[in-house]
Amino acid sequence: MKSADIIESIYKTADATRDELRFIIENRSGESARMLYGLARERACEYYGKKIFVRGLIEMTNYCRNDCLYCGIRRSNKKVQRYRLTKEDIMECCREGHSLGFRTFVLQGGEDMYYTDDIMTDIVASIRAEYPDCAITLSLGEKPRESYQRFFDAGANRYLLRHESADPEHYRRLHPAELSLANRMECLRNLKEIGYQVGAGSMVGSPYQTVGNIVEDLLFIKEFAPQMVGMGPFIPHHETPFAHEKPGSAELTLFLLAIVRLMNPKVLLPATTALGTVENNGREMGVLAGCNVVMPNISPMSVRRKYMLYDNKLNADAETEAAYESVKKSMDAIGYEVVSDRGDYAG
Ligand code: SAM
């Protein structure tokens, strides 16, 4: 078995076995990576051309009831200055984002019970009414099915909920006892059934992660067939139990992103901020490995430094417009064009 043959076969069939995935990951080299990136780029181009979709990320709250061991805004981190955006703050972010050309808004936050279903539904409905041409993505964690349904009925289109790890034992080592992979999966299934475009995904190089875990993540993504996949490196945060763990590497992240593209040809695949944080030009390298989405931050400047999931986050101090311009320029420099478009899944 040679890596080149396996990669060729994944390209042709959009599928792979456990053994094949393990083999190409364990035996990866500069040569196999170059081949993989080239084919992944070609696949992305086939469905999306040399276009990059942007999503305006609004970090609406850093309050969280959860205590995920890796996350900087976990409830046990008493050093975080907590904040919440009001509906007016969020509408103002959308206004600025829309005028710059964003046609997708992503409302992300910790699991903050202040935002009841009534409050959230009102926020979603207001954005929907004001911006009928835009997609609304939510990333607010685990909720009962009824809540997801209400947000959907109010006008939300997409939901990002990374599965974090498809191996229950590994999942347990990253999360406190009250969270379970079974519930995460149940949420993902509910979201899909309701009709959301759904994003799953995981961190690369999270503590205790084995190649076997990574293979299971790739196979789960293939089977669940989400429309979006969020996959970026784990980066330690100094006020968490994982403060002294090693970050995930850009090299392995890029390799896996390219495999995700080949196994899920039409997937909407962001080159994450975390990838741009561990590696200079990481987001550009992501695009050259098959990514087709970038998610610039459009949160108010006053809260940027408070939404720190990990240390040294890229562009934490960059003004919305300047950061957006720099994404446009950097994509232009590698021959890609940032477009003002909802950027839906190529169905
Ligand atoms: N609370 C929601 C949820 O759990 O889906 C959305 C917010 S959560 C902070 C968004 C994502 O950030 C998580 O899915 C996780 O993968 C990522 N994340 C958190 N801490 C991280 C870290 N230290 N390094 C890299 N990514 C991290």
TrEMBL record:
Organism: Synergistes jonesii
UniProt GO MF annotations: 4 iron, 4 sulfur cluster binding; metal ion binding; transferase activity
Binding annotation for [4Fe-4S] cluster: C64, C68, C71
Cofactor(s) demanded: [4Fe-4S] cluster
Coiled-coil ranges from the UniProt annotation: none
CDD domains (alphabetical): Radical_SAM (cd01335)
Pfam families given in the database record: Radical_SAM (PF04055)
Name used for this protein in its record: Biotin synthase
Gene3D superfamilies: Aldolase class I (3.20.20.70)
